[in-house]
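Project outcomes to date are best conveyed with an example. Our students and postdoctoral researchers have been running inverse folding experiments weekly, and each run begins with a structure described purely in tokens. The record below, which covers 85 residues, was selected by the lab manager from last quarter's runs and is presented without edits.
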């Protein structure tokens, strides 16, 4: 297995994960929506820092609520989501 491959899981592990996931609540945006779109944000790294001849653009994935367009960030803003039963 090369370092970019994910380790394979057994059928038993997959069944346990599936059962666990089915029992977990969906996360909601503060507006109440459970639906998010994946978008891409860009950061620029100066050519002086990157050591290249041009600035480098780095894509950063993000989630945005389809209803209110607020960015979802459960790591930096735990109060921005509502757990549903």
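After processing, the design step wrote out the following sequence:
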């Amino acid at each position: 297995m090369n370092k970019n491959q994910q380790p394979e899981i057994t059928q038993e592990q997959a069944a346990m994960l599936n059962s666990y996931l089915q029992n977990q609540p969906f996360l909601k945006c503060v507006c109440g929506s459970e639906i998010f779109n994946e978008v891409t944000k860009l950061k620029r790294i100066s050519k002086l820092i990157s050591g290249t001849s041009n600035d480098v653009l780095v894509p950063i994935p993000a989630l945005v609520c389809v209803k209110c367009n607020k960015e979802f960030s459960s790591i930096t803003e735990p109060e921005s989501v509502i757990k549903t039963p």
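Residues 10 and 16 are 10 Å apart (CA to CA). The beta strands are 27-29, 36-45, 56-65, 71-72, 81-83. The training component of this project remains on track.
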